[in-house]
Every structure is written in structure tokens, then in C-alpha cells.
């Protein structure tokens, strides 16, 4: 079965940084685009960033451009999200998932439990 284990979240002050990791298993990681998503309590899950299967293309939602960087290590089957200059509005639970293709926002596989990020003074 496909499994995602997201780690690296926590409590951080505004302006701080965190690095999230997503360990993937149960599918051929290197063949799929991967995305980070986040969900604020009471709202729908949204795409934060996506990276192509070979890591040669990335895209970001406007609110995180210039602050967040998505990357991947296909040998380790791991996805990363470096988050800098964090703001209170980044507070959410962060998830990862694979995508059928680079333009597809839907997650392909069952969701993991996510990692919570809280940004406050």
C-alpha cells in the first residue's frame, strides 16, 4: 500500500524556518510528480508546491513564492519543503502526495497524517 510519512513540522515564530520531509513508499516514487499540500482547520486542502518527477520543474502557489522551496531525492524516495520567512497564515497541517501528471492537483494515493506547522509569536 502507498504510504506517506510527513515530518518536520512544529511551532516557530514569524520569520522563522522549517524543513518538512515526506518519506514515500508503496509506489515507484521517481516516476511521479509530487506535491505538498496544506489544510487549515475548517478549510479545504490546497496545493502549496509541486515538483516534476525528475525534479526539473517546480510550481508554487502565489502566497509562498520566494519563501518556500520544494525538492526531492528520488534515491531516498523523499520529498522536502524548505519553508523560510514563515508567516502566521502558513499555519496548517502539511501533507504530501503524488500526482498523475504535472498539471493534476489531485492526490493519487491515500493521505498520510500530515505534519502540523504553527507560526506564532
Model description:
With 121 residues, this protein is an all-beta fold. The protein is 0% helix and 45% strand. The chain has no helices and ten strands. The strands form two sheets. It has a six-stranded mixed sheet with strand order 2-10-9-4-5-6, with no helix packed on it. Strands 1-3-8-7 form a four-stranded antiparallel sheet, with no helix packed on it. Strand 4 and strand 5 form a beta hairpin. The protein is globular.
Summed up:
The protein has 121 residues and is mainly β.
Largest sheet: 6 strands, mixed
Q: Helix count? A: 0
Number of strands: 10
- What's the helix-strand series? EEEEEEEEEE
Q: Quickly give the structural class.
A: mainly beta
Q: What overall form do the CA principal axes indicate?
A: globular
Parts with pLDDT < 50 across at least 5 consecutive residues: none
Mean pLDDT: 97
Helix content: under 10%
* Spatial gap, N to C terminus: 40 Å
- Rg from C-alpha positions? 13 Å
Spatial sequence of strands, sheet with the most strands:
2-10-9-4-5-6
Blueprint (SSEs and pairs):
Elements: E1 3-7, E2 10-12, E3 18-25, E4 34-39, E5 46-51, E6 58-60, E7 68-73, E8 78-83, E9 92-98, E10 115-119
Parallel strand pairs: 2-10
Antiparallel strand pairs: 1-3, 3-8, 4-5, 4-9, 5-6, 7-8, 9-10
List keywords for this structure.
121 residues; mainly beta; six-stranded mixed β-sheet; four-stranded antiparallel β-sheet; 0% helix
Amino acid at each position: 500500500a502507498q504510504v506517506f510519512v510527513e515530518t518536520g513540522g512544529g511551532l516557530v515564530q514569524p520569520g522563522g524556518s522549517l524543513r518538512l520531509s515526506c518519506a514515500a513508499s508503496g509506489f515507484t516514487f521517481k516516476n511521479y510528480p509530487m506535491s505538498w499540500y496544506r489544510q487549515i482547520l475548517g478549510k479545504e486542502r490546497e496545493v502549496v508546491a509541486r515538483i516534476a518527477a525528475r525534479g526539473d520543474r517546480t510550481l508554487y502557489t502565489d502566497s509562498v513564492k520566494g519563501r518556500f522551496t520544494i525538492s526531492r531525492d528520488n534515491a531516498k524516495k523523499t520529498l522536502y519543503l524548505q519553508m523560510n520567512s514563515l508567516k502566521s497564515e502558513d499555519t496548517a497541517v502539511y501533507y504530501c502526495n503524488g500526482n498523475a501528471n504535472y498539471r493534476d492537483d489531485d492526490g493519487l494515493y491515500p493521505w498520510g497524517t500530515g505534519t502540523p506547522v504553527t507560526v506564532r509569536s
